[in-house]
Amino acid sequence: MKKPMRLQAIVLGATLSLGCGGRAVTSTQAGTGPDPVCLGDSCHDGICTPVSVAHLPATGDGGSSGSGVIAVDARNIYLTRSQGNNAVEVLRVGKCGGEVKLIQSLTTPYELLVVADDSAVFWFPHGGPKPDDLHGIWVASPDVEAQPFVVPQVRPDILALNSTRLFWIGLEDRPKYLLESMSRAGGEIDSRETATSGWVALAADDEYLYQFHDGIVRTPIAGGDSVKIADGRPCEGSLVATARHVMWAECPDMDPGPAPFLVSIPRTGGERSVLLDPFRAWFVAHNDRVYFDLDDGVYELPEDGGKPRQVLGKAIDRLRFRFAVDDYALYWVEADTVWKVGLAP
User: Of 134, 169, 176, 290, which one is least surrounded by beta carbons within 10 A?
Assistant: First the structure.
């Protein structure tokens, strides 16, 4: 069997963001609600002009690598920067600029697992030997820079989030895994055994958990039987749930195999729809849109399918390009500068 590709897909399910002028921006006001001075007031043929948010401060040795936006909350942009010798910084800056603040320093060779919505951002260094060695899962919110959230009983291999709980799956003895969760308000860890089919995929909404086990399986969070709702083999880490759909990057079980492709099904079950083929395999789902990058730029696609629309040109760092999306803009880091581009309605 081909070793699975590990990917990260991010779902941002918030329905309310704060505009840079302090006004509320609903999901139906994308591109029209925020202060135009903050986003830049120039759009042509549906593509807006990027705006610089902030320049990253110089490092002690004068160099860094691997900068990338990992998430946004209602007011802030979160990014990471590698400093060498396995040193990683988690930084934060306001969506309309201001001071770039260091909110956590890590010493780890591993990537960060991240889930987020408007209210909070949770992260954990993937692949660490023990949870306590890496200080557990951390959280930040619009009004709190960073603080420990929980030291899990097992090392998380993936995180998932709904409006009330944080979920993670931890490796014990293959193929047995532990599914753990905790209220976002704190409390005791709930732990149960779960099965996988070789690698981990996990998503959540307020009613169900979605996992991979010989297909896409849906389990009621409140308890009950698991139901297979679709065939599929998600690339590891790529399963997401939106208000109406479950989506993933399909990784064919062949070695060498074809490129991944993007698949969607209704969250209650139904026919699979191939949204994009071939597909670079990293994407962000927000509201009713999917955002992904191709060689000539970043595109958005309705989760029901249709024609992709370009939202950003190709003048971006292709080596380590990651981005985050909210109701009205797309955010990324290029050449030690944090950028955003408004999403035209």
Answer: 176
